[in-house]
Structure formats: C-alpha cells, structure tokens
Amino acid sequence: MSARIGVITFPGTLDDVDAARAVRLAGAEAVSLWHADADIKGVDAVIVPGGFSYGDYLRCGAIARFAPVMGEVVRAAGQGLPVLGICNGFQVLCEAGLLPGALTRNEGLHFICRDEWLQVEATNTAWTSRYEPGAQILIPLKSGEGRYQASAQVLDELEGEGRVVFRYAGDNPNGSQRGIAGISSANGRVVGLMPHPEHATEALTGPSDDGLGMFFSVIDSLINA
Amino acid sequence: MARVVVEVMPKAEILDPQGQAVVGALPRLGFAGISDVRQGKRFELEVDDSVSDAELEQIAEALLANTVIEDWKVVRVS
C-alpha cells in the first residue's frame, strides 16, 4: 500500500506534472488535486507546485491562497499533514499564513533560471530527513519573485528554532534575507522552498537527482508515523 | 454607489528594486534631483452604500495588501 501524495493544480500552475513524476519516482502514488474542489482526497501529504497561478495577478500566490482546495490544506496542515510548497507553492503557503514572511521581486530584477547549490540545514523536517545535515545539493532555481523577506524578529526566530531548511550555498541569487532558500513551520511538517527539487530527479533531465531526497523523506515520515 | 481608492505601498523597510529601477532610469531621460522612488499599487473600487468602512479595511488587509511587506490606506473619494 503505497503512500498517496496530492499535487495541486491551480489555473496557471506549471510544475504539477513534474512534481507528480517525482512522487512516482520516489515510489508513492501521485494524486491530482483540483483548485476548485474543497477536497484533498484523504492524501497523506500535499505538494503545492511551481508556476504562475492566476498569472501572479495581485501578488504571487495571493489569489491561489483563497482557492477552495487551500482551505482543506490549511485545515489538514493544522492537524499535522505534511505540505511542501515549491516556488509559487512557497509563495502560496506564505500568503496563506502556513509559513511566515513573504517572497518579493528578485533584488536584481532579473528572472533567475539556473542551477543553485543549496545547503540543507534542517534535516528534522518531514521533507528533509533523508539528507545529511549540511549536505550540499544542486537544484534548479527559476523565479522572478524569489527574494525571501521577513522582519528581523521572524528571521531570528527561524534561525533560533532551526527552521531555516535550505540556504543558498554560493552567491545569493535573489537577495533573500540571510540567504534563505527554504523554511519550515514550527512543527517541521510544512516546508517551502524557492528552488525546484522536482527538476532534480534524474541525470537525463536535471543537474542532479538531489531533489529526490525530499520525496523519499516524506514517504519515510508516513511509514514511521 | 461610492468610489473607494485603496493605496498599497511597500513598507519603508522593504527593499523595492522596481522603484530603484525607476530611479536609475530618470537620469537617463535627463531628469535630475529625484533621490528615491517607491512603487506601489492603486485599487479603485465601486462600492454600494451597504459596504462599511470596516469591510473595506478587511478587504485591504486580507486581499489587496500583504501586510507582511505592504501598508495600505483606504480613501472614500466620492
């Protein structure tokens, strides 16, 4: 009986297909979740994938956060459901209040599309347990609004509580404060990151298969639950 | 019916690279003396008389602005 991991599609979502593929590569069943249905079909975890939901209108993720499916995701996350927000998904989770802070326009204004070395700093989350602490992984970044910002108080809280999950290991590509590439909720079940692990799952199509660890990790967390 | 304007601006402590791009462009157009530009959004709402100020504030705070990074102001203009 394999784990069932939901992948949401909003109008304008691009990377749901690759996220579903990554789930299958890791050995779980990918379950499509439709934005307009307040139904997450009893899945064991949810991925909010990348893309341009609602055309990034108003603000990235600002409209998606009110989609019927997100009401169910927020409710289930409150009960411990693991949730992974990738790129636009990270933006949606911040707008929805599941993660603190906000993602804003890249500091240099350019859309950045390149492979980035990330350091995995927190391995006690539902999505990173398969990594060694301090592991450096090569994951594609492709975003125009990837600059993570939060108040100094929130940043200190994230650092102090070990909730900075990924940090850019080399140069900071987008001006994210403290070089933050991804963070977690207080209970470590909800994680958001700007780079795309679903695009680093096979040597043929990505710079590495380092992204697979996130999908293996969440499956582990379900087996051991 | 009334017209309501909601102005949304990035908070003072937020880096605004788009505003900075405008600052950079002005000298290229021959304009001097502008030391800073910050770029925000203006929303114009047509509302009927049943919509209260409290509701407009909720609209501004919950949807039109992201209060982590933006400030908002609601003005009834007519």
What does this structure look like?
The complex is a heterodimer of chains A (225) and B (78). With 225 residues, chain A is of the alpha/beta class. Helix content of chain A is 22%, strand content 25%. Chain A is globular and about 45 Å long. Chain B is an alpha+beta fold and 78 residues long. Chain B contains two helices and three strands. Chain B has helices at 17-28, 53-64; strands at 2-10, 41-47, 70-76. Chain B is elongated. Classes of the chains: A alpha/beta (225), B alpha+beta (78). Chain B: It catalyses: N(2)-formyl-N(1)-(5-phospho-beta-D-ribosyl)glycinamide + L-glutamine + ATP + H2O = 2-formamido-N(1)-(5-O-phospho-beta-D-ribosyl)acetamidine + L-glutamate + ADP + phosphate + H(+). Chain B: Its EC number is 6.3.5.3.
Topology:
The complex is a heterodimer of chains A (225) and B (78).
Chain A: E1 4-9, H1 16-25, E2 29-34, E3 45-48, H2 68-77, E4 83-86, H3 88-95, E5 102-104, E6 112-120, E7 136-143, E8 147-149, H4 152-160, E9 164-168, E10 180-184, E11 190-193, H5 212-223
Parallel strand pairs in A: 1-2, 1-3, 3-4, 4-11
Antiparallel strand pairs in A: 5-8, 6-7, 6-9, 9-10, 10-11
Chain B: E1 2-10, H1 17-28, E2 41-47, H2 53-64, E3 70-76
Antiparallel strand pairs in B: 1-2, 1-3
Q: Key terms for this structure?
A:
heterodimer; A: 225 residues; alpha/beta; 9-stranded mixed sheet; two-stranded antiparallel ribbon; 25% strand; B: 78 residues; alpha+beta; 3-stranded antiparallel sheet; 2 helices; elongated
Short description:
Chain B: It comes from Nocardia lasii. Chain A is an alpha/beta fold and 225 residues long.
End-to-end CA span of chain A: 15 Å
What are the segments of chain A in which pLDDT stays under 50 over at least 5 consecutive residues?
A: none
Q: Main sheet of chain A: which strands, in order across?
A: 2-1-3-4-11-10-9-6-7
Question: What average pLDDT do the residues of chain A reach?
Answer: 97
Q: What is the N-to-C order of secondary-structure elements of chain A (H for helix, E for strand)?
A: EHEEHEHEEEEHEEEH
> What is the rounded Rg of chain A?
15 Å
Helical content of chain A stands at 10-25%
Pair with the most extensive interface?
A: A-B, 20 and 10 residues
Q: What does the largest sheet of chain A look like?
A: 9 strands, mixed
Helix content of chain B: 25-40%
Shape of chain B: elongated
Strand order of the largest sheet of chain B: 2-1-3
Major beta sheet of chain B, specifics?
3 strands, antiparallel
Count, helices of chain A: 5
Shape of chain A: globular
SSE order of chain B, as H and E? EHEHE
